[in-house]
Amino acid sequence: MDGKNAIVTGGAHGIGYAIAKRFLSDGARVLIADIDEKAGEAACDELSDLGEVRFIAANVAERLDVRNLVANALDAFGDIDILVNNAGISHKADFLELKESDFDRVLGVNLKGVFLCGQSVARHMVEKVENGGDPGCIINISSINAVVALNDQIPYTVSKGGVAQLTRVMALALAPYGIRVNAVGPGSIMTDMLKSVVNDRDARGKILSRTPLGRIGDPAEIAGIVAFLASRDASYMTGQTVYADGGRLPLNYTVPVDS
Question: Cα(177)–Cα(197) distance, rounded to whole angstroms?
């Protein structure tokens, strides 16, 4: 990735942080975008020894924030080769009790944000191709919940299903320009969202019982797949979602877990 320029949304924590770290280690310049300004600045400081990294506070659900994000990336690097749409939130509620405002809030970040960032960056990439430049690539972070469902995570589940389909639509729309669009669908990964759950013995046992590899994934493992999708090795892949879930999706039974 030497000389490549990347945007990673939601890059202050978890999977996004691991992706930014991997890209920097592979020689790319990275702009981290996150709504958490304090964590974003801290991430930038922590990763600065690996390469050129910058941070901008942005809410990907807001069109003007996205416009400012893309403008800042172009001002800083002069080009955008890779976009990783990683920013995401969740909200737990029973279906009968879920508030419309919470449904809208989650879909605003998780699905609309992917659309807004993808469209804005794609416009730059298309213009670059039309002027003789190399096509870039876009990688969306979906989830296994694009396929399976959680009955108390309605907006999250719906949004990730939307991301999987939006990935296909974007890939078809941008294929004439050589711009590739793929997604990664993680299973149970050790992020801040999951840490509060796995400290509960019963909850951890439930997670492991549906994970044939018998362990929770690491954010760096998702970052490795994203790095592959951004590389020349994935040059004939577009419109795909790669599921990294420890074998959960093929499973139609539970596995024994040591207590």
Answer: 43
**Residue 233 burial (C-beta neighbours within 10 Å; 0-12, 13-18, 19+):** exposed
Task: Judge whether residue 120 has pLDDT over 70.
Answer: yes
The answer to whether 28 and 51 are in contact (CB under 8 A) is yes
* Two tokens, residue 164: 């999987």
CB neighbourhood size of 26 (10 A): 17
Q: What is each CA distance from 224 to 17, 25, 227, 242, 257, in whole angstroms? A: 12, 11, 5, 12, 27
CA dihedral (219, 223, 229, 233) positive or negative? negative
Name the amino acid, one letter, at 224. G
Domain ranges of the chain: 5-189+220-244
- Residues labelled catalytic: 156
**Residue 126 phi, psi dihedral angles, 5° rounding:** -65, -45
Cα distance between residue 127 and residue 68, in whole Å: 18
CATH topology (fold) of 5-189+220-244: Rossmann fold (3.40.50)
The helix or strand, by DSSP H or E, that contains position 83, with its residue range, turns out to be strand 82-85
Q: Give pLDDT tens digits for 20-39.
A: 999 999 999 999 999 999 99
What would the pLDDT profile of 152-177 be if each residue is shown by its tens digit? 999 999 999 999 999 999 999 999 99
